[in-house]
Design a protein that fits this description.
The complex is a heterotrimer of chains A (279), B (159) and C (107). Chain A is built from twelve helices and seven strands. Chain A is mainly alpha-helical and 279 residues long. Chain B contains two helices and nine strands, in the order ααβββββββββ. Chain B is α+β, with helices and mostly antiparallel strands and 159 residues long. Classes of the chains: A mainly alpha (279), B alpha+beta (159), C mainly beta (107). The B-C interface holds B 1, 3, 10, 13-14, 17-18, 21-22, 24-25, 27-29, 31-32, 70-73, 75, 82, 95, 98-100, 102-114, 116-123, 155, 157 and C 16-17, 28, 30-34, 36, 38-43, 47, 53, 56-69, 71-78, 80.
């Protein structure tokens, strides 16, 4: 593993390692603080304490997201617009031929993953795009994390910007969302950590000088400064799993869609910012 | 826009940085020596020569704390009338701890109206950034800023 | 390559300095990064960015590996006559891209 990357990961995990080893030990000062906060917490629980990763960023990165002329993700959206109108496959059809203008995609990203009756399971937006390509354009699927797939996803997702996250209340989705919820709380990997331990229990605290966000999928696909490029939620989840020293699931594994479904339900009502910028 | 290129400055840096990168690209596996305060001083001397380097007129706008060193927004503004008689000819920016000391050079003139340039830079570590404005009257003005980088410019490849 | 977002105001008043913002798609590979097999990934950067206004160069930027990927550049120029701005990027591996934007100057 390249030296710099190893050093970065080590630096990230110095803090996690200490936390994982200390798990279970009571910290007196934490209890004292906890007691003194009981009354206001009872009141605070009435209001929404959820925070988008946007709120955890510095002003200069927030500004980068807010300005469409300065948000690097918009370069992918622009490419997506070209691809939207491009005729492909044996059917020689463009997305536009069936869907018209991309404005018809308003609200779509906010309600994905959605149940695909033919497959009998939910699919995420990238999978939906590839299913369309296969079934309606008779074209090959676009590779995971490829520039074209990300560009189309970003172009479609941007149409839901500003809308509340609204996963469907389709009862067929619930077993998959429950599986995602279980994954979120399951300890994994060499560090024996669960997503919940960082993103539910320690959000807002620092991990190697970086603020731990709550992990809401409010901006995907995101331009991540760490990637110097645009990436999907799957890429982020895989990065997290690697970081936890757990084996990432295969790229098309159902676990990612289950997790995304759970995360979208957990973020229900929060505003979609796609395409976002994150550190 | 007529301008007299500096004889040793930009070209030297491009050769220096590309030469190092080229040599390393030929199969070297070690990370090259970083820029140091000494190489920063040498780079500045290459631009300024024996002229006086005065503090002032230049505003170097950088966040004091950068969450990710990969993309740090930077704006350099120079207080100048930008007239034919008195304008900024060039803005040079250097760093202290990246693998090489050079960041950018912007060539300007009275056609710009305002001596302000914004870019996004990569910072390897918490370090000092130095901006030098060269005017048409042969003056050199400078400003520097210290940036704390919590996550060094460390690109995470897809796993 | 050559995917760029350029932002100039719709109309500008003669004599006023206006801001031009350009965001171009480019990996800006520094040449200092090691790949998964341990050897260094070759440098691939944009080296120069220029802007001409009705044929006259009004801005010239020399970039380095210290410029972030997908470079964002902002600078100013004084509105003289209506016409066009040509923004040009050149770099390693013979990379070259150009975008022309119209500019309307009112008195």
């Amino acid at each position: 593993m390249p030296l710099i990357r190893a050093a970065c990961i080590w630096w990230h995990h110095r803090k996690i390692l200490r936390f994982a080893q200390d798990d279970g030990k009571a910290r007196p000062y934490a209890i004292a603080v906890g007691l003194s906060l009981m009354a206001p917490i009872a009141v605070a629980q009435q209001s929404d304490t959820r925070r988008s990763g946007y709120q955890d960023m510095s002003k200069s990165v927030q500004t980068m997201q807010d300005d469409d002329m300065a948000n690097p993700a918009m370069l992918w959206v622009r490419e997506g617009a070209t691809l939207w109108a491009k005729r492909v496959g044996a059917a020689d059809k463009a997305c536009a031929d069936c869907h018209g203008g991309v404005e018809s995609m308003a609200g779509v990203a906010a309600r994905y993953p959605a149940f695909d009756t033919a497959l009998g399971r939910p699919v995420d937006l990238e999978q939906r795009i590839n299913l369309c390509r296969r079934d309606h354009q008779q074209a090959d699927a676009l590779a995971n994390e490829s520039r074209e797939l990300l560009a189309l996803t970003a172009h479609v997702a941007q149409q839901s910007r500003g809308k509340p996250i609204a996963p469907p209340t389709d009862p067929r989705l619930q077993p998959f969302a429950d599986a995602g919820a279980a994954l979120f709380k399951q300890r994994q990997g060499q560090l024996n950590l669960s997503c919940a331990q960082c993103h539910d229990d320690n959000d807002g605290r620092k991990l190697g000088s970086a603020t731990i966000p709550q992990g809401h999928p409010t901006g995907y696909p995101i331009y991540r400064l760490e990637w110097q490029g645009l990436g999907s939620l799957k890429r982020r989840l895989r990065g997290c799993l690697s970081g936890m020293r757990a084996e990432p699931y295969a790229y098309d594994a159902p676990e990612y869609v289950q997790l995304e479904l759970f995360l979208m339900q957990r973020a229900r009502g929060m505003t979609l910012e796609s395409p976002g910028v994150r550190p | 826009m007529a301008h007299t290129p500096q004889t040793t400055t930009r070209r030297t840096f491009l050769v220096r940085s590309s030469g190092t990168a080229a040599a390393l690209a030929l199969g070297a596996t070690s990370i090259p020596a970083h820029a140091t305060p000494e190489s920063l001083a040498a780079s500045i001397k290459d631009v300024v020569g024996s002229a006086a380097l005065r503090t002032g007129k230049v505003t170097l706008d950088l966040p004091p704390l950068a969450e990710n060193g990969n993309t740090v927004p930077m704006t350099v503004t120079v207080d100048s009338p930008m007239t034919e008689a008195d304008h900024v000819k060039a803005i040079h920016v250097f760093n202290e701890k990246n693998p090489q000391p050079y960041v950018m050079t912007a060539m300007l003139g009275p056609r710009n109206g305002r001596a302000q340039v914004a870019v996004r830079i990569k910072l390897n570590d918490s370090q000092k950034i130095v901006a030098i404005a060269e005017t048409s009257r042969g003056e050199f003005w400078t400003a520097s800023a210290d940036v704390i980088v919590t996550l060094a410019a460390c690109v995470e490849d897809p796993t | 390559m050559g995917n760029a977002l350029i932002n100039v105001p719709g109309t500008v008043k003669r004599g006023e300095a206006f801001e031009i913002k350009a965001l171009i798609s480019h990996p800006m590979e520094t040449g200092f990064r090691a790949g998964t097999n341990g050897t260094l990934i070759p440098r691939n950067i944009i080296q120069r960015f220029t802007c001409t206004y009705n044929g006259v160069e009004v801005f010239n930027l020399t970039l380095s590996p210290a410029i972030a990927a997908n470079p964002f550049i902002s600078f100013f120029t004084v509105a003289t006559d209506s016409g066009s701005l040509v923004l040009r990027w050149t770099g390693d591996g013979g990379f070259s891209a150009e975008e022309t934007v119209p500019i309307t100057v009112t008195s």
